[in-house]
Amino acid sequence: xxxxxxxxxxxxxxxxxxxxxxxxxxxxxxxxxxxxxxxxxxxxxxxxxxxxxxxxxxxxxxxxxxxxxxxxxxxxxxxxxxxxxxxxxxxxxxxxxxxxxxxxxxxxxxxxxxxxxxxxxxxxxxxxxxxxxxxxxxxxxxxxxxxxxxxxxxxxxxxxxxxxxxxxxxxxx
Length: 173
Hints:
Structural class: mainly alpha
Order of helices and strands: HEHEHHHEEHHH
Strand order of the largest sheet: 1-2
Helix content: 40-55%
């Protein structure tokens, strides 16, 4: 938590998102103790229900709760949609709101970018018993002898922040 806070300060991050299950369960308390404003954090529980469950997903006839098994799947697809939008904007001239696109700062270095690209492209799409989209579990990744995509997971959490947190009046002004 202290390392996350220090990195956030160093890079001018406004928010810290963290996995609130398992090892990350105490992160919020540690950040509060470290004087990071709790209003500038958000918890991420991959197994939680989807956000805006009755809202239609993208340009489909399906709602978020019909489309996605859990928050993890919704978040991974949200990031994939942002990458697709960015690609279409750059290669086809399509126009999107800047909040619906994404880019990766090249100053993080080639090694980390390569690891991120590999990890983002490793988990497979899966379908639950109700026919909803989910992301391949860590247990199933292990069966394929694939390490947990920790860098990708942190990237997904960070980029799900727009979906996760509620904006304060001050942010809107």
